[in-house]
Amino acid sequence: MIDVGKMIASIRKERGLSQAQLADRLRLSKQAVSNYERGIREPDYVTLEAIADVLNVPMSMLISREEQKAALDALNAAPPFPSNVLPISSLHHQRVPLIGSVAAGEPIYDPEELGVYVDSPVNADAAITVKGDSMEPTYLDGDMVYIKCRPEVPEGAVAVVFLDDEATLKHVYYRKTGLTLISDNSAYPPIMAEFEDYDGKITIFGVPVGYTRIYKPDPLKKIKKGF
User: Fold this and answer.
1) Of the residues 101, 120, 131, 170, which is catalytic?
2) Which is the catalytic residue, given 134, 176, 183, 222?
3) Domains in the chain, start-ordered, CATH in brackets?
4) CA atoms within 13 A on the CB side of 98
5) Long-range contacts of 69-76 (CB under 8 A, 24+ apart)
6) Active-site residue 131, yes or no?
């Protein structure tokens, strides 16, 4: 049987995290994390899943297969949610830094947004907002896109790319002298990013792993209905 508390403490230290930092990422109190590590309290299955996500380890490192099965059986025995409702606990929300905005056409970077954190429904490292329509219909103006940091991406993949301190969301194609960045919206021409123009400061930040969208009412439809 796995000593959950000792395992959490060991992996946390390997990741270079303090109890306070782990607690912050889990949105728990430092005391709660301390109690888990000292074996005073045992985290429930949903909390264990969140801990595994934050520490980036498989659940099998924290809980045996038999214990996983027993916990899942207990969860499945609970009254079911309606088919169109997803329990919030299963979304594994975590806080990630909002690093700025990516533009349609021209890249933008907003340093004032540094230090702001948002809830991510997926396992991500950062979030960025889309401005403009260059990536329609895939990503729309105002979408919050969640990013997993990757220094390299496959040819043609969508990625957040920093040109100096400015960020853009585009399909990435490699050239010897730089990158070609392509929008989904054909109204926008390719961006030919040359290494020499940016003193080599062209950085692939990461790839989208999810997004959230706020649907706004069409003001024209509202006017037609009202009159």
Assistant:
1) 170
2) 134
3) 4-79 (1.10.260.40), 94-212 (2.10.109.10)
4) 16
5) 71/44, 71/45, 72/45, 74/45, 75/45
6) no
Average pLDDT, the chain: 77
CB 55 within 8 A of CB 94: no
The model's pLDDT over 36-95, given as tens digits with 9 standing for 90+, comes to 999 888 888 778 888 888 888 887 778 766 765 665 565 555 555 555 555 544 445 577
What is residue 121's predicted lDDT score, i.e. its pLDDT? 79
Give the mean model confidence (pLDDT) for residues 182-198: 89
Q: Residue 170 catalytic?
A: yes
Within 8 A by CB and 6+ apart from 173, the residues are: 155, 156, 179, 180, 181, 182
**For position 217, what pLDDT does the model report?**
63
Specify whether the CB–CB gap between 145 and 127 falls below 8 A: yes
User: Can the peptide bond before residue 137 be classed as cis, meaning omega within 30 degrees of 0?
Assistant: yes
Instruction: Specify the pairing of strand 126-131 against strand 94-103.
Output: parallel
Residue 160: how many CA atoms within 13 Å on its side-chain side?
A: 30
Which pLDDT does position 162 carry in this prediction? 86
Amino acid identity for residue 92 in this structure? H
pLDDT tens digit sequence for 130-164: 888 999 989 998 899 998 888 888 889 999 988 87
- Cβ-contact 37, 65 below 8 angstroms: no
Question: Is the confidence at residue 124, as pLDDT, over 90?
Answer: no
